[in-house]
Amino acid sequence: MEMDLRENTMLKDGTYRVVSVLGRGGFGITYKAITHGAVSGVLGGMQVDIPVTIKEFFMKDSCVREEETQRVSIPTANGKEQIERYKKKFIKEAYNLSKLNHPNIVKVIDVFEENNTIYYVMQFLKNGTLTQYIRENGKMNEDMARKYILQIADALDYMHTKMHICHFDVKPSNILLDDHYNAKLIDFGISKNYDEGGNATSSTPVGISKGYAPLEQYRQTLNEFSPASDVYSLGATLYTLLTGKVPPEASEVLDNGLPTRPADVSPKIWNAVEKAMTPRRKDRPQHVSEIIALLRDEVKPVVVVEDDVETQLIEDEEAKTKDEKAARAKGSQSKGSSFFILDPSMKRMLIGGLLAAACVIGGFFAWKSLGGASEKSPQVVESNQVEDVELDYVLKGENGNADVSFHYKGQAVDGVPEGKGIGEYAEGVYEGNYHAGKREDTHAIMKMANGDVYDGSWENDYYAHGRYTVSESGMYFEGDFRQGEPYNGTNYNQDGSVYFRIKEGKEVE
Questions:
Q1: Cβ-proximal residues to 471 (8 Å cutoff; 6+ apart), any chain
Q2: Overall pTM > 0.90
């Protein structure tokens, strides 16, 4: 008897067509599906296929699927009450997710009942989980690991402070990557809602993912609002990204502490891991903002991978993400797109190792410091006196680089841009977050004076990961940047076809 829906199964009166299985868990099966949408213009319109993700309520140890009808049934009377409770929780998860509005949380767009079970529909994130990314691409460097943890930390901070929700299942396999390789938190199956008084608003099962769950989760003491529990899981996820291993279980950390810091991991970032994974909840940072503050300082490159730990459901009693510099001189403003219009021989010469010359004669690699915008990115303010200002600011050049002048309007501490603001540079306009006068953001869009657009993250006033689109040709580069220059990624033609790829700063076939 089959467990999964068959390929090409139609759901919701033909609205969705099942394409393949993406994953299976303790109480759900996740599918890739296709729905239809319309696009139109002045000359007419057309129908297009849109990929979506559909999650089906299906408890693998209790449910069966009827082969002919594909209906889900429970073969025995035992546990029906429990399954109905889980089903209600599944529906509540869908509706709770639909209310969450954050760039690093997956978006739910539909929920419906069919085949005697429940389905909810989410945006499709084609680049898989952090676990899959690491398996396929090898170890991440430390900056990349920090970027993803900061993004998820920002999502958790939003959940805790704005929505009074704790996730309770943060781990690499529950973090997906979108088209621009930004992280999105998924799977709210064991999350809990709390009222203004900090009391759980419903009796739901508590689950554990070994290595990622804190002691209090094993002990089922989560009836009071507990952001510190998500802090532990966030630290454990960072542990995995830095070591490539599933963390030791919380009881082992209590008895023996964490393993020795790997030689290629900086003490600063390891300190964040150790603080977050403090076994006793009362000794641990109580808010995600404390971990954000620890990670916001500079770190050096490093290591990463692996998890696929299944969340185990447990019945509780109640329920039966420094350096070098900003913008090159004003001359780089009009050169930012010339890389894509060079002839192939010149392009290959630039990629083949003359990166410094490229900055002068090609200008493409002058991408290094042109910014972005984000509404909910984390920030660290090292003074209590935050004020709104409008001023002309000069960011002093480091390591021989020229100073960068810009007009700034936004939050500042002691006259230094710190927090959300707008910067008008020679290259274009940046709207987003600043730290110590530099552009720092997990996701931002900067519009250049020549029409080019950068959409992605910023670190130390440099591009970090995202897409740079050339307005003149429509061609674009998508991937990682190092010190603002394309390092790993792909150059695409306007139609989305691959032009050539870059690996470690060089063109590859």
A1: 337, 448, 450, 451, 452, 453
A2: no
Beta bridge partners of 30: 23, 55
Determine the Cα angle at 10 with ends 45 and 62, to 5°: 145
Whole-angstrom distance, CA of residue 486 vs CA of residue 325: 16
- DSSP secondary structure, 492-509, as one string: E-TTS-EEEEEETTEEE-
Is the CB of residue 237 less than 8 Å from the CB of residue 175? yes
Q: At 80, phi and psi to the nearest 5?
A: -60, -40
Please, which residues have CB within 8 angstroms of residue 265's CB and are 6 or more apart in sequence?
142, 242, 243, 302, 303
344 CB-near residues (< 8 Å, 6+ apart): none
DSSP state of 393: E
Tens of pLDDT, residue by residue, the chain (509 residues): 568 999 999 999 999 999 999 888 777 899 999 998 776 666 777 778 899 999 999 988 888 898 889 999 887 766 677 788 888 888 877 887 888 889 999 988 899 999 999 999 998 998 889 998 888 877 788 989 999 999 999 999 999 999 888 999 999 999 999 888 899 999 887 888 887 777 776 666 667 889 999 999 888 767 778 899 999 999 999 999 999 899 999 999 999 999 999 999 999 999 999 999 999 999 999 999 999 999 985 433 333 344 555 666 555 444 443 333 333 333 333 333 333 333 333 333 333 332 332 332 233 333 333 333 333 333 333 344 678 899 999 998 776 677 889 999 999 888 899 888 999 998 899 998 888 899 988 888 899 888 889 988 888 888 888 899 888 788 888 899 887 788 888 888 877 778 888 888 888 76
Q: How many CA atoms lie within 13 A of 270 on its CB side?
A: 16
